[in-house]
Amino acid sequence: MKQDILLCGVGGQGILSMAYVIDHSAMEAGYYLKQPEVHGMSQRGGAVQAHVRVSDQPIASDLIPLGSAEMILALEPMESLRYLPYLSMEMGWLITDITPFVNMPDYPDPSSIYACLFQLPRVQLVNGFHLARKAGSPKAQNMVMLGASSCQLHYPPPMLEKQIAQLFARKSERLVHINLNAFRTGRAVSDFHRVLVEAGVPVGLAARVLPWLDFDPWPVPEAVSGAWIEFFKSSRVCEVLDVMWSKQEVFPLDPEVPGRLLKDIQ
Amino acid sequence: MNRQILLGNEAVARGAIDAGISGVYAYPGTPSTEIFEYIRSRSAKENLGIHARWSTNEKVAYEEALGMSYGGLRALVSFKHVGLNVAADPYISSAISGIHGGLMLAVADDPSMHSSQNEQDSRFYAGFAQIICYEPADQQQAYWMTREGFDLSEKLKLPVMLRLVTRLAHSRSIVTLTEPRRQNQASLCPDTSWWTLLPSNARRGFDRLLNKQGELRELSESHPANHLTIAGAGKPGIIAAGVTNGYLREALGERIAEFNILSLGFYPLPIEKIRQLIEQSSEVWVLEDGYPFIEQQLTGAGLHKVPKVKGKLGGDLPRSGELTPDLIGAALKCSKNPAVVLPGVESVLKPRPPVLCEGCPHSDTFQVIREAIRGYSDVRIMGDIGCYTLGFYKPHEGLHSCICMGASIGMAAGLSHAGFSPVICVIGDSTFTHSGLTPLLDAVQENTNIKVFVLDNSIVAMTGGQPTMVTDGEVVRLLAGLGVPGERIRVIKPLPRNLEENVRIVREELQYRGLSVIISRRECVTYYKEIKTAKSNRQGELR
Question: pTM surpassing 0.80?
């Protein structure tokens, strides 16, 4: 087992907490671990990243070599693109929140960022900020995103949940609850995506619907997944997705929704 | 077996605790801050009774540690690389006086200047003082080197340096801990002439230091951190210092067996091992993070005939910035893993430098200054080190220099001497007590025509919310004590609704020809919890 993950986002978004959960899960699973991170000036709203390297063999370098990351897990869409040179061409997944964090005057048009993301072979797009708010706090965006990566991680979700509970127990029971809720909501996104892909929906296409569904904590009702699998058999999928991205409206997890969307386009 | 996930900094801290330190002395500075913070928090939780209180600056920290060593106890000093410039005076002389209780200096260098104004290499300081320097390759080494360093410090009666770089200081890994050692019993060194560096004593002390150099070199030759592997005569050779060991192994993979390798983690240099490596190898690469410290000694600045050395000086590796597995891999012609390429991504990506937080009092202060100097031409605002250095950027553009801790006031005075008026400078509360008091005293004596803004936000914010030495009314009393006339000490509260009033106050001071100090006082919005704790602790102590 060997997994290199690059976590990234904007200073203050909670990357170190994500790293904490993965680190401690890795130690519990008996793996080796190296995890460099950014402290200091960049934490004031600058671009930040952490490398998380886990392996069943000793790890030589703290830094992930270019082209070797199995996953970029990002809390911000433009930041997710900053570290592409690290992402392995052969197996790299990019999992990102689509919510722009605008603290700079020249932030690009988000649609140009999305256009880049749509070209990636293995991508998962998540409305993390929205789902975190729904789970109880926008600050839990990082745990939504961690949950959204859970199908790609080498640890069973209960193991990760145990570390989340431990991390937030220092603060309050309420925060433990919110963050577990957030993680499970993210896990629903990850699992839903996996189910679609296993049913033959292309990865990138399935990714494009994810941000516009109002996920609840895992699991996703089978009827909902089934309805969306059917949806992707239609020839007009792309048109519907384009409308969804232009309207940016979030739809309930209702098996009726995909059919209705197809009907509306006709 | 006790295994823990620790930052490189925390591994050093744990090593010091387990070596039985009785005190830790430090001034906050990235990438070193967590060393002190870990010890303070563990000492409180585990009831270890280690003296842990931030010092006013690095020189003070070093002197306090030296005093504890004088009393026979072990002490750790920690700060960032530029902090050693501040502490250089006691540091250099403490190698001549020698020490009593073990004294270690953990200094964190910042190659690539992630959070610093330069990337100076502390190994030169170790050579300068002629003491031992450890350079750990990973977190586990950081732990045991710190433990061992204290023993060696007491054995040699010398301070010992441990040099970290940002990547190790701020990287986590699993560290196996060993049984902790008890703290020393306090005791005095019988011979006070060691510690009293009058010329006659200092000459003897310097001789003692010089006479130890042979022993230090022998230690280096046999030290396990300096490990030589000869794969075969005529094969290419590599010297890998500290963290570059990991990068090298990452880059070479199985090809590592084709190289003669000297892993280096203990200075002074093991000259015999290096000689052996050079003799056995077709060429010698020098991999070191920071300045070409080793390479320069090998090549003798080009005077010696060692044609086969490759590294930073000859341009085979970049001269600035930290090394990475990719840079080393490229230099050694290793194959690269293909990465995802997206055409057009460059046009979407914009740099995202750090910014002042929303609602930050510094933003309001910069606005007040901007408004107040409207109408004056060529106004320069001398800056200092802290969050407010970000005032250089748009939209503030309210800071025109930043050299080192405390430089704002002295430079403002010099600029005033050069004939410019008005001259303004800005300095944070903690930077002010660190290095701003002495230049201000100069300005008081001369009544220099400068306008000093003390930005009192009640916390050391840039490094993560450490308590300040003075805040609120204490700043006023301190200024008055230095001799700033009461009517020239003005206090403003930087809030948007006070803009007009604040500008009026500053304009009044701009019209006065002489020294004015304007305290711009409002608590940091990010560390309000830490400020509350610090202030309530403080009241408890003052009572």
Answer: yes
The CA distances from residue B478 to B303, B454, B475, B524, in Å, are 55, 12, 5, 21
Instruction: Report the 10 Å Cβ neighbour count for A262.
Output: 17
CA-CA-CA-CA torsion for A83, A89, A91, A95, nearest 10 degrees?
30
Domain contains A242: no
Q: With 70 as the cut, is the pLDDT of residue B307 above it?
A: no
Best of A34, A39, A70, A101 to mutate (most B CBs within 10 Å, chain B): A39
Q: Which residues contact A246 (CB under 8 A, 6 or more apart)?
A: none
Q: Which amino acid is at B313?
A: L
Number of domains in chain A: 1
According to CATH, the topology of domain B2-222 is: Rossmann fold (3.40.50)
What average pLDDT does the structure give for chain B? 96
For residue B160, the SS3 value is: strand
Q: Is B436 helix (H, G, I), strand (E, B) or coil?
A: helix
Residue B116 CA, distance from chain mean position: 9
CATH of the domain at A149: 3.40.920.10
CB contact under 8 A, B349 and A104: no
- CB count, 10 Å around CB of B539? 9
What residues in A contact B338, CB-CB < 8 Å? 67, 88-90
User: Does residue A184 fall inside a structural domain?
Assistant: yes
Contacts of A35 in chain B (CB under 8 A): 171-173
Structure tokens at B324: 């990475």
- Provide mean pLDDT across the span B223-245: 97
Q: Are B159 and B25 in contact (CB under 8 A)?
A: no
CA B473/CA B539 separation, integer angstroms: 13
Is residue B161 classed as helix, strand or coil in its secondary structure? strand
- Joined together, the tokens standing for residue B439 give 């230049």
- Write the secondary structure of A160-207 as one string of H (helix), E (strand) and C (coil): HHHHHHHHHHCCCHHHHHHHHHHHHHHHHHHHHHHHHHHCCCCHHHHH
Interface of B with A in 352-411 (CB under 8 A): 352-357, 387, 390, 394
Distance from CA of B244 to the nearest CA of A (A): 8
pLDDT band at A43 (very low <50, low <70, confident <90, very high): confident
Q: Going by CATH, does the domain composed of B227-331 fall within 1.20.1090.10?
A: no
The interface predicted TM-score (ipTM) is 0.95
Q: How far is A46 from chain B (nearest CA, A)?
A: 4
Query: Are the CB atoms for B509 and B371 separated by under 8 Å?
Result: no
Report whether pLDDT(B359) > 90: yes
Residue with tokens 């060393």: B35
Cα dihedral B411, B415, B418, B422 sign: negative
Contact B339 A33 (CB under 8 A): no
CA–CA gap between residue B322 and residue B167 (Å, rounded): 9
Phi, psi of B239 (to 5 degrees): -105, 120
Q: Is B172 on the interface with A (CB under 8 A)?
A: yes
Residue A264 belongs to some domain of the structure = no
CA-CA distances (angstroms) from residue B42 to B23, B175, B414?
13, 16, 45
Taking the domains of chain B in order of start, what are their residue ranges? 2-222, 227-331, 361-542
Q: Which of A5, A8, A33, A44 to mutate to test the interface with B (most CBs of B within 10 A)?
A: A44
Within B47-138, residue ranges assigned H as helices are: 58-70, 81-97, 123-129
CA distance A146 to A204: 19
Specify the 3-state DSSP secondary structure of B483.
coil
CATH number listed for the domain at residues B361-542: 3.40.50.970
- C-alpha–C-alpha distance, residues B31 and B498, integer Å: 37
Range of the domain at A162: 2-216
Of A36, A67, A119, the CB nearest to B336: A67
Tokens of B209: 């230091």
Note the pLDDT tens digit of each residue in B247-261: 999 999 999 999 999
Residue A247 located in a structural domain: no
